[in-house]
């Protein structure tokens, strides 16, 4: 379920995110390493599946005490969607989390992650997951 985040990435940098609950993050497989990923995301009852950049970890720039999972959807959508179920399929690990000396360098890294994700998510091996059964059925409705 989507929860209210810190509003830093969206508010300060212009990259709004959908934030997973701490319970959802705690239930992720332990072997899933912290870092930046690209993947596909579906929000609520919508059949639409969007490309996304996902941050999983402690966000060193902001020094999060708890592990978080933030999804920046690479498509214009209305945010926030608090309380709504989100499905995310991680496709590829992009890089480790880093600490940046300033917001400008963090924003530059995010922009680079977005460009990399767009390139990867156009590849056939990535596109097939956009239509994966994980996303097909929503509350008994076949998308």
From TrEMBL:
Q: Which terms under GO biological process does the entry name?
A: FMN biosynthetic process; riboflavin biosynthetic process
Q: Which GO terms describe its molecular function?
A: ATP binding; riboflavin kinase activity
* Highest taxon in the source lineage: Eukaryota
Tell me which residues make up the Riboflavin kinase domain. Answer: 1-122
| Catalytic activity, EC | 2.7.1.26
What InterPro entries does the database record attribute to this sequence? Riboflavin_kinase (IPR023468), Riboflavin_kinase_bac/euk (IPR015865), Riboflavin_kinase_dom_sf (IPR023465)
Q: In which pathway does it act?
A: Cofactor biosynthesis; FMN biosynthesis; FMN from riboflavin (ATP route): step 1/1
CC terms in the record's Gene Ontology section: mitochondrion
Q: Name one Pfam family in it.
A: Flavokinase
UniProt KW keywords: ATP-binding, Flavoprotein, FMN, Kinase, Nucleotide-binding, Transferase
Name the record gives this protein: riboflavin kinase
Q: Which organism is it from?
A: Panstrongylus lignarius
